[in-house]
Design brief:
The chain is built from 17 helices and 6 strands. By secondary structure, it is of the alpha/beta class. A 6-stranded parallel beta sheet has the order 3-2-1-4-5-6. Strand 4, helix 16 and strand 5 form a beta-alpha-beta unit. The chain binds NADP nicotinamide-adenine-dinucleotide phosphate.
Amino acid sequence: MSSFSIETLTQLSYLAAAALFIMGLKRMSSPVTAVSGVRWAGLGMLVATLATLALIFTRASQFNLILLIAAIGVGGAAAWISGKRVAMTDMPQMIALYNGMGGGAAAAIAAVELYRGSETNLVHLTMATVGAFIGAVSFSGSLIAFAKLQGLITKSVRFGGQRFVNLAILLVTLGFGFMVVSATGSSGLPDISLFFVGALLLGIAMTLPIGGADMPVVISLYNALTGLAVGFEGFVLDNAAMIIAGTVVGAAGTLLTQLMAKAMNRSLGNVLFSNFGETSAGGGGVTGTQKAIEASDAGVMMAYSQKVIIIPGYGLAVAQAQHKVWELAQLLIDHGVQVRFAIHPVAGRMPGHMNVLLAEAGVPYDLISDLDEINAEFETADVALVIGANDVVNPDARNNKSSPIYGMPILNADKAKNVIVIKRGQGQGFSGIDNALFVLDQTRMLYGDAQAAVSQLIQAVKAAG
Ligand code: NAP
């Protein structure tokens, strides 16, 4: 086959890959089609990779081909093994790591182009430099995010004047970037190297002060940046698949970041600069005492209810109680109880966290409702069963203007006739504030690990006949 026809074939494959990416993303927007969406997008990635390889095989030296195959082998095996082994609760740090690799790859492509010094087209040079900057920041920032979520870095590093130090690193890095671009290909090694060092340092310095629990939003932001960096490098390499995939990832990541910040009623600036959840501990002005309930009584209450709405939260993920919860729900359904699951958009610690857990346990999608769909139904519920959720059901977000989470949309569990809350003790949620729901007249606390408590409820419902 002539090189012309291989190139045409490659371009057509890129088009097919782009269509697969976009259709895959569309399918990921519903839990019913999400798994097939992931497969479609994965197929798109495979098509793009094979097309690129076919092109490279016609051009690369034997030595480079060996390097390439070895890299694909090592990277593919590492991704396959870690993907198979990762626990659902460790998914955010896994995403951070993969995301960092994407940013690093984009920066590495730019590094090759810049160090080679053969690029004299000013537009291409600017694109390569901007992509290198974003990719390098995203790479080092994502690695710090990974280390925090993995517990390798346990403290958030903060000191006076930190923002000015970060600003200084940014300005110096941009200065070197400007020198690299304005030298149009004849930039010296030191300028390019210092530019990369500055960008890597900025990613680290920006991420170190951010609290561990805010990492999912930060990872989503870095994900958007990685997409952008890949898109820029796609222009430099004249690679349509990279431009499209990078733009799609950049746009999806930006929207996800915005949605997460909105669901937490916080601005992105507040997430990046406020140390939320680490400094606002205690407080909230909640008075009143929590009233405990035995599992046997709670089981009877639910068995004789007409409608029970289950609200899962972060504690359910920690306890891995999803299978037990579905067992309980099935038992109640067999008793003639109408059961629904209510999911808050930021319940847990990553987007879609609860949907993934419930899907894993086999809960049918038509029993699961999101906040807008279910909130009007709480008034007709006999029991709202809150399992390891806290902030997402705190009525202070609706009623108390002085609350740090005032304005955050919540699930209206407090409107149910009875509320049963499963949690281990007096522990606060991610925002570090007390919860007014727990001291309401109609609320009873069932203390214990979510999995153990739900197992007791199952026994109690069975005993209720
Ligand atoms: P939450 O407010 O963090 O509360 C979780 C509760 O679970 C805690 O109060 C804890 O109380 C309990 N818990 C922990 N381990 C447990 C176990 N083994 N068994 C039973 N209970 C357990 O959770 P949420 O209501 O799901 O809210 C999520 C929060 O995370 C929101 O503030 C949200 O803004 C934030 N966030 C979410 C995302 C996201 O993408 N989803 C990203 C970043 C931040 P005890 O210690 O007393 O048991």
